[in-house]
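Per reviewer request, we include the raw input and output of the structure prediction for the construct analysed in the revised manuscript.
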Amino acid sequence: MKVGFAVLYRWRLKPGKEDAFVEAWAKMTELIKQECGGLGSRLHKAEDGTWAAYAQWPNRAAWAAMQEMDPMDRTASVQMREAVEESFEPVLMSPVQDLLLFD
């Protein structure tokens, strides 16, 4: 499937809350794939201590529709929110060329 839209999210997490964040992020990502048509996401920890997730979507409209929905899992949503010390504005992106390798 061709990716038509991507979003880069960034956070600074509270010390000791990293594992809870990763668990909740994975759960929310799976639900978004199943319920909203998301194409998945990759979570990264940067050398400066921030965390970033790159989420892919078939198009911007699918992402926008998900933004309007209530959280699919309130417990996981709260768990993520409680782990975040600082959240940065998401970066909305349209792919120009895709050279990532997939399994």
